[in-house]
Specification:
Blueprint (H helix, E strand, L loop, with lengths): L4 H15 L4 E9 L4 H15 L5 H4 L1 E9 L15 H14 L17 H23 L4 H10 L1 E6 L9 H4 L4 E5 L8 H8 L4 E6 L4 H11 L8 E6 L9 H10 L4 E4 L15 H17 L4 E9 L18
Parallel strand pairs: 1-2, 1-8, 2-3, 3-4, 4-5, 5-6, 6-7, 7-8
């Protein structure tokens, strides 16, 4: 098992702080037919962009989760990392992190040729802040490599629970701190839900339009009947222009579980190759609508859960123009 006990305990402590509004949540997942080193750079670029600053002061208050995944619908050749081989993916992730592929001063290369002025300006600010902080650290006599090593150590990893995962496949999930599942794949009496109820890992459940609050509540109460802060995070995934369509679900869940931790994915289209176009304006509108929706239910939007398919990494820059509105 790659995730040792003290790491998991630290992660649970951080998700508890998230529930208390003491930190923000940022998850960046990049998926494709195969796992490539540049996917980690892209994921870290998203983390930097979502943080809106360097990884110093704001980074200390941000729970950062990274995932590299194999697209289960990939065709045309065998993936280099097996779809169900969580150990192999986690080993590769950690090897890339330790090797320097994740150096934060290089994770902006995938945005060097952005043509959107607003995105380019925002990224330039993020990059300048990072370089300024690294220069200051070096001037203080601290090796910047030590600093980036410390920041890499603060990264957590997530793994997706597939619809055919049973208790026999639990070992592959132990490599991750955070377990990710889609609400449509979870039924109260299913093996997947019983498995999640027995594991200590925090769980992120992604909810799209069409999921009813009663069904989701049954799953949440089964996984987390003690309602431990930060044990379950709900990710709202609106499509189209009407995020208010999720109001029944948010209000229904909040009425029974007022301490629910909410995050959002306002650019859900980027998660699949044919997911449709999305621009910065739409992402801004969705983000503000989700924040207002969750605020009205007596809670707050704790952060972002962004998934990008490898074929669409170049489009992911749209999130930069949208997700700093509250900063």
């Amino acid at each position: 098992m790659l995730v040792i006990t003290n790491e998991l305990e630290r992660f649970r402590s951080d998700t508890d702080a998230l529930a208390r509004r003491d930190s923000r949540f940022l998850r960046a997942a990049v998926r494709g037919p195969v796992v490539q080193p540049e996917h980690l750079e892209a994921a870290l670029g998203l983390i930097l962009a979502l943080t809106g600053m360097s990884m110093s002061e704001e980074g200390r208050r941000t729970l950062k989760v990274v995932e590299l995944g194999v697209d289960s619908g990939a065709t045309g050749g065998s993936p280099s990392i097996g779809i169900d081989d969580g150990s192999a993916r986690a080993n590769l992730l950690r090897a890339l992190v330790a090797s320097g592929f994740s150096a934060f001063d290089r994770s902006d290369r995938w945005l060097d040729h952005v043509t959107d002025d607003a995105v380019a300006d925002r990224w330039a600010q993020v990059r300048d802040n990072l370089r300024r902080d690294l220069a200051f650290i070096e001037a203080c006599g601290v090796d910047p490599d030590v600093y980036t090593q410390i920041q890499r150590a603060s990264l957590y990893f997530s793994s997706r629970l597939t619809s055919d995962t049973t208790s026999d496949g639990a070992r592959a999930l132990l490599d991750a701190h955070l377990l990710v599942a889609s609400a449509v794949d979870l039924q109260v009496d299913s093996a997947q839900v019983r498995l999640l109820a027995r594991m200590d890992n925090p769980v992120l459940i992604q909810v799209a339009l069409g999921v009813e609050s009663t069904g989701l509540l049954g799953v949440l109460e089964t996984i987390d009947r003690l309602r431990n802060p930060g044990r379950v995070i709900v990710s709202l995934q609106p499509a189209g222009s009407d995020a208010a369509s999720l109001s029944e679900l948010v209000n229904g869940v909040a009425a029974v579980r007022p301490g629910t931790t909410w995050v959002g994915n306002p650019a859900v289209e980027l998660g699949t190759p044919g997911g449709g176009a999305v621009d910065g304006a739409a992402v801004r509108v969705r983000t503000e609508a989700l924040s207002e929706l969750v605020d009205a239910a007596g809670s707050h939007l704790a952060g972002f859960d962004i998934e990008v398919h490898a074929d669409r990494i170049g489009e992911a820059a749209v999130v930069l123009a949208a997700l700093g509105y509250d900063r």
